[in-house]
Every structure is written in structure tokens, then in C-alpha cells.
């Protein structure tokens, strides 16, 4: 088992990181147990965010008394300099540390957001100031958009990028990976199992791990799934012909209705955040009930109920997905799940 160098940060990490979204759903005692078990098994990079409700707090409590080196990554969706500096202070307090290794601009998914964070009072400059003060070590950004990732990388201002990568979402392989490698930017791969919806998660994780320069960070909720993921990471072997055939089968089966989060379908005339709704299955597997019922996810659900099936999104989708019909199906799943 080889540790992986996270680009120009020169941080050497276990082949997988610990994704901190799902621990929002479990009680504090259970979260602490699974985090400490992860560290015990060798995982030394934990990724979380200000937006993940109490995830940072649970991680901070789990780290008390730990004498192993554990690298921390967090992120903020605040778009202003002052706002992100406030969020960093909160993250430091929650995590119980004086410095966070990697801090990310969270979800830079469109050009408007890109321009906001680089404006004179934009969040990027808050990260620069935080780094100068020693509050963070490395500046990073996460994005679901291949086009925006390219722009972020080309600024040459980021030490790490976080992107979607799994056996279905492979668009980053052609352009983003080579660009990031050229600039020696570390790569963290979110959604290595498609947010929990890919039917063979171990195979999808193994696929992602074939790229030795990528560090996948699967969201982990139980010790059982943690140990399964670590087992895959500890025994990385080339894909067999049978596994390659299985990957193609899954792609054919899921590709007909799998949103890649590229956002080419936007803007929706009804202001529906389409990819959020199309990935509702994943959200409901990972998010706490209160977010599903009253947070940003519920706001997206409320807007989606206004879909008039105008079809504008279909004309823009490069994958020819039947988006209005997919929205209708997801709305019913959400309604049943949250009892709305």
C-alpha cells in the first residue's frame, strides 16, 4: 500500500480520505467511533465543510487525544472575503485546531460564482489572508463543472482541487487531470461511488483508485462501509476484464438517466436547480432529515414542483437525458421520503 502525494502540498496521504458528509446523519458517539476507527486503519485526511451542519464539531471531538498526524480539509460556500474569514474562524473552533491544512472555496460551479470569489472583496482573497496569517496551509476549491474546473486550474492559484469522479462521471479524465498534473495541483475525488447510487460501489472505488494521483474521499457513515473501503484501498490491483465488462454494463444501464452535474441545462426558466433534484437519491442517503425537510435541499424540491416540462433543459443536455420525466420521478421519491 503506497501513500499518495497530494500535488504540490507534498502531503502524503492514505489512498482514500474520509468524507464528512454522512456523519451528519448519525449521533455524536457513533460518529466519533467511525472517525477514530478510520484513523486507526491508516486514513490520515478528513474532508468536511461548514455546510455539513455538525460534521466539523464531531470530527473535532473525535480528534481529541489522537496522537497520529491527521490532515484536515474544510470548505466554505461564503463568497466574500469577510464572510469566508469568519467561516474559517468557526471551522478552527469546531475542529479544535489552530490551523487547517486545506481550505476550499465550496462549490464553484458556474461563471457567476467564479467571478464573485475573485472580485475585489471576493472569498479567494480571504483565503490568501488566512494563509498569510497561518490559519490555513493550502488554498483549494471544489467544483462540479468541468468548464469551471479548467478556469480554476488555469489561474494557478490553487494547491488542491476537488471534483466529481467515478465510473460514470469520467469527463475530467481528458482535460482536467492533465492540466492539474501539469501544474502539480493535488486532486481529491468526491462522489467516487456516485454519491451512493452506483450499484457496485467497491468496483467504482477501485476504478477511481487506478489513478495514482487521485485521492477519493467517499462519504463514510458506518464502520462496516469504512472497512470495506479500506480493504479496496489496501489491495489496489489492475481492473480485470470481467470488471471492465461490468463497468461498461453499469454505464449503459445508468448512463441513460445519470446526471453528470455539468449544468449545461441551466438556467431553468422556473429556477429549478436541476442537478440537485436529479441526484435526490444520493442526497437522501447522505443528508440529515432536517436538511431534507427545511434546508437548501427542501428549497430545491419546492422549486422543482413548479416544473412545467417546457423541455428547454433537454435541448441543452449533452447527454440527451429526459430531464423533465426524471424530475417527475425524483419528486415522487422525495415526497414519499420526507412525507410532504
UniProtKB/TrEMBL annotation:
GO terms, molecular function: iron-sulfur cluster binding; metal ion binding
Residues that span the membrane, as ranges: none
InterPro entries: 4Fe4S_Fe-S-bd (IPR017896), 4Fe4S_Fe_S_CS (IPR017900), AKR2_Oxidoreductase (IPR053135), NAD(P)_OxRdtase_dom_sf (IPR036812), NADP_OxRdtase_dom (IPR023210)
Record keywords: Iron, Iron-sulfur, Metal-binding
Keyword Oxidoreductase: no
Keyword match Mitochondrion: no
Record-annotated 4Fe-4S ferredoxin-type domain positions: 298-327
The name this protein goes by in its record: Aldo/keto reductase
Naturally occurring in which organism (per UniProt): Caldicellulosiruptor obsidiansis (strain ATCC BAA-2073 / JCM 16842 / OB47)
Organism placement in taxonomy: Bacteria, Bacillati, Bacillota, Bacillota incertae sedis, Caldicellulosiruptorales
Amino acid at each position: 500500500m503506497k501513500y499518495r502525494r497530494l500535488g504540490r502540498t507534498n502531503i502524503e496521504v492514505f489512498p482514500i480520505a474520509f468524507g464528512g458528509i454522512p456523519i451528519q446523519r448519525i449521533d455524536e458517539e457513533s460518529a466519533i467511533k467511525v472517525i477514530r476507527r478510520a484513523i486507526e486503519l491508516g486514513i490520515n485526511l478528513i474532508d468536511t465543510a461548514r455546510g455539513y451542519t455538525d460534521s466539523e464539531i464531531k470530527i473535532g471531538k473525535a480528534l481529541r487525544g489522537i496522537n497520529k498526524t491527521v490532515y484536515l480539509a474544510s470548505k466554505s460556500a461564503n463568497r466574500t472575503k469577510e464572510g469566508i474569514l469568519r467561516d474559517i474562524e468557526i471551522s478552527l473552533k469546531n475542529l479544535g485546531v489552530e490551523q487547517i491544512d486545506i481550505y476550499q472555496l465550496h462549490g464553484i460551479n458556474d461563471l457567476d460564482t467564479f467571478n464573485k470569489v475573485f472580485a475585489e472583496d471576493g472569498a479567494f482573497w480571504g483565503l490568501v489572508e488566512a494563509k498569510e496569517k497561518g490559519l490555513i496551509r493550502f488554498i483549494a476549491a471544489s467544483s462540479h463543472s468541468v468548464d469551471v474546473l479548467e478556469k480554476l486550474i488555469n489561474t494557478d492559484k490553487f494547491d488542491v482541487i476537488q471534483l466529481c469522479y467515478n465510473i460514470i462521471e469520467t469527463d475530467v479524465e481528458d482535460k482536467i487531470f492533465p492540466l492539474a498534473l501539469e501544474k502539480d495541483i493535488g486532486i481529491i475525488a468526491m462522489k467516487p461511488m456516485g454519491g451512493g447510487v452506483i450499484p457496485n460501489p467497491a468496483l467504482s472505488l477501485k476504478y477511481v483508485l487506478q489513478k495514482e494521483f487521485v485521492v477519493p474521499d467517499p462519504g463514510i457513515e458506518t464502520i462496516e462501509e469504512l472497512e470495506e473501503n479500506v480493504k479496496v484501498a489496501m489491495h489496489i490491483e489492475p481492473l480485470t476484464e470481467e470488471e471492465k465488462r461490468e463497468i461498461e454494463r453499469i454505464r449503459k444501464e445508468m448512463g441513460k438517466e445519470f446526471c453528470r452535474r455539468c449544468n449545461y441545462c441551466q438556467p431553468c426558466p422556473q429556477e429549478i436547480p436541476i442537478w440537485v433534484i436529479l441526484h435526490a437519491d444520493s442526497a437522501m442517503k447522505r443528508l440529515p432529515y432536517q436538511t431534507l425537510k427545511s434546508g437548501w435541499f427542501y428549497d430545491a424540491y419546492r422549486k422543482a414542483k413548479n416544473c412545467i416540462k417546457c423541455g428547454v433543459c433537454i435541448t441543452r443536455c449533452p447527454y440527451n437525458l429526459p430531464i423533465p420525466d426524471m424530475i417527475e420521478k425524483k419528486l415522487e421519491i422525495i415526497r414519499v421520503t420526507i412525507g410532504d
